[in-house]
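Hi V.,

You were right to ask for the full record rather than a summary. Here it is.
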Amino acid sequence: MNQTTILLSSITLFFLMLRTSCASLDTIAVHQNIIDGETIVSRNSTFELGFFSPGSSKNRYLGIWYKNKNMTPQVITWVANRETPLIDTNGIVKLDSQGILFLVNGNGTTIWSSNSSTSGARVNPVAQLLDTGNLVIMSENTTIIWQSFDYPGDTYLPGMKLGKNFVTGREMFVTSWRSADDPSPGEYTISFSMAKGNYQQVHIRKRSVIEGRIGPYNGIAFAGEPIYKTNPVYTFNYDMIVTENEMYFVLNFKSVYELLRLMVTPSGKYEVWHLDLRKHEWMQDLTFPSEKCDTYGLCGPYGICNTVTFSTCGCLKGFELKNPREISGDNWSSGCRRIRSLDCAPEEGFLKFSSLKLPDTQNAVFDVNLSLQECKVACKKNCSCTAYTNPNNTVGGVGCLLWFGDLIDMRVYTLNGQDIYVRLAASELLSNLSTPIIGGNRGPRSRFPKKRRLIITISLSTLAGLFVIIAICVWIKRNSRTDVEREGKVLEKDHNSSRKKGSIELPVFTLSTISRATNKFSDDNKLGEGGFGPVYKGVLEEAQEIAVKRLSKSSKQGLDEFKNEVLCIAKLQHRNLVKLLGYCIQGEETMLVYEYMPNKSLDWFIFDDLRKSLLNWPQRFHIIHGIARGLLYLHQDSRLRVVHRDLKAGNILLDHDMNPKISDFGLARMFDGQESEANTKKVVGTLGYISPEYAANGLFSVKSDIFSYGVLVLEIVSGKKNRGFVHEHDHDVNLLGHAWKLHKEGKSLDLTDISLGESWSIHEVLRSIHIGLLCVQHRAEDRPTTAVVVSMLAGEGSLPSPKKPAFFIQGSESNTVAIRPSSNNGVTVSEIDGR
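Predicted structure:
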C-alpha cells in the first residue's frame, strides 16, 4: 500500500495531481475525497486512516491503524466495511453536506456509509481523525454527529464506551475478526452486562454461548480479571457510568511513552497490549482465558475452581457432588447440590466464603443504598435468595448484591478475591463452623456424631413406616365412597397435614368467601371453562379482583392436577408467572384462587381476526421476552427445575400492562437438582405444542418446553395457529413447515401478521422467527437452552442456522406421530401410547 499521506480536493484532476506531494491533514471536508492509496493522519501522527488489505487477502477495506513504518504486521484498530469488501483499488471516500460519510466502489455504488444525519440542515460538516484513533464527523460548531468509537470492531481503545444506550437501543461491544485475513464479524464477542438491574461484568461469548467471564466490577476494577502485569510507565482506571438512559464503562489511560489496546482474537482470546513508543514494540500484558479455571462454569453450580488446594474442582461447604459417578477431573458440569435442602426456616443462616471470584451476576439484583448488614436482612427475608455480598471494595463503599438461583462460575483468587455469604440450612451451619471453607472433589460429609446419626435414621424409618400404615388404613376406609367425595376428603386431610408441617404456605379461602366474591358462581361472572373446570371472576371484600378456578365433578383432570398445581406454583414467585393467591378445599369443592388478569389470555388476541390488531409489534415482542424470562425461572432459577408440559397461547395470561404470565401448572412436573428429564407412558399436553420426543417416546425435559415456546413465538409473529394452519399455496405444511420454507427462501418477513401494518422492527421480527425455528428443531439436543434463548432475544451474538423443524408436514412425514385425544374437548389434554 502507498503510505504517502495526503488530502485530495475533488474539484479538478489537475489539482489532485498537484497535491500528491503535499503533507496530509487530519480532516475530510465536503467536496473532498480520499481515493485508494491515500490516507489521512491524526495530528499527533499516531493513527492513520486509509485503505488496506489484511494478511494474504486481496480484498480492500477502509480502516484505521497505528501509523508506524517500523511495525510489522500492521495493527488495525477499526474497519468500516467489515462485511462488504472492495474487490479492487477503485474505492473512494466521500463526505456529503448532510454529514454522512460514504464509501463507494468504482461503479459509484455505495458499499458502506456512516449512520449519521443532520435532519436536512447544512452544517458544513468535517470528518476528522482524532489523536485517540476516533474518526468523528462534526458540524461547523464542533458538535459530533457520528464517531467510529460508537461502532467498535475487534479492538477497544481508551476512551471508547462499552455498554448500552437504553434510549436508542444501541449496544457497544467488541467482536472478533473471522480470521487474520478476514475482518468480517467472527464468532466471539466481548460484551458488558447490558440489562437494566444487572450488576456490571464482562462476558466472552462464542456466538451466544458464554465461554468466559471477567468481573464483577468491585468499584475499582473487574475483580474476576486475571492478575495484570503492572507497568510503572503508565496508569489506567475505569469509569463506570450507570444512568436511566445508558450503562457503560470507559477505560482512562495516561502515559507519555506508551499506547494501549484491548482486543478479542479470532480464537476467542481477550488480550491487552501496550506499545512502547521508544522501542516501537508491542508487549502483551494480559491474555484471558489463560488457565483451566478461566473456563466459564467449569465446576458447575455451587462448584469452586481451585488449582492450588485440590485438583481443579470442589464443592462449597454444605454441598456435595450432584452426580458422583459422572464426575471426572475434566467433567464437572453437573456441579454440586445442597446436603440439606432449604425450607426457609428461621434457623437458616449464612456461611462466609472468602477470596473468591464472585458468581455470575446474571441472576443477581443490586441495591447501591444497602449496607452489608441490611443486605443480610434483605436476603434472609426472601426465601429465594441464595447468597449476598457487598461487591464494592472502595473505601467506605456500600452496596448489596443478592443472588437468586444457583451460584455458578466461582474460583479461588488469593490476591483479588472477595467475600460472599451463602445461605445454608441450620444443621449445615453447625457442622461447618469448625471446617475449612471449601470442600474437595468428594464434597463435604455430615459432621453429626455416629450415635446421633443412628438415632435420626431409626426415628425417620419408624415415622415413614407409620405414615405408610396410616395411608393404607385411610385408603381402605374411604374405598367405599364415591370417587370425587373420597378423593376430596383425602386431599382435605393431606392439605391439613401439610399445613401443620409447613409445606403449604398459601392462604386458605372458605367456600362462603368465594361464593360471595363470585355472586354465588353467577354465570355473569364466568370467564370461561377448560379441562379443569369453569373459571369465575370475583371481588373480595377488600376490593381485590380474583379469578377462581373451580374443579368440575365431571372433569377428567381433577384432584391430581389440583394437588400438583398447589404444591408446584405455591413455591414459585416471578413477575412472568401467574400468582396463586390461595385455595379452597371444603367438602366436595376444590378451587384455586389466582390474581385476576383483565386482558385474558394471549390466544384471545392473536387468533381473533378483529382483536389481533390491538396487539402491536412492540407488545408482541415484549410478550415473547416475558414468556422466555418466565421459562428461565422455571427451568433454572427456581428452587426446583419445573417443566410446564402445557405451554400454549391459552396458558399465557396478560395483566393490565400486557405483561405475560405463564399459568396452569396442573400438568407441570418438578425435578430435583439431580434430574433433567423423565419418561412417562401417558403423554399430556396440547396438540400442536407437544415436542416429538415427548409425543413418540414419552420423554420430556426442559427442551420439551423450549419446543412449545418456539411454536408460540411463530404463532405470535404470524397471528396463526400451528394446529390447523392452512396456506393458500401449500396445504400440506403446518405453520412450522411454512416458516421453515420461507426462511430457506429468504422470505421470512412474509410470515409476519398482516394486521401489524408497518409498526414492526425488521431486525426484531427476523430474529424472533430465527429463534422460533431454533426452538422447534426435531432433535432436543439441537434446541437452545432457555438461558441462551433469553440472551439471543436480547440481541447478543450471532444466531446459528436452524435445522428442519419437527412435524414439518401435517400427518405425512416419518417424524409425525398420530395423537389420540382423550379429553372432552380433544384439545387441552392428550394421551399418546409410548413406543
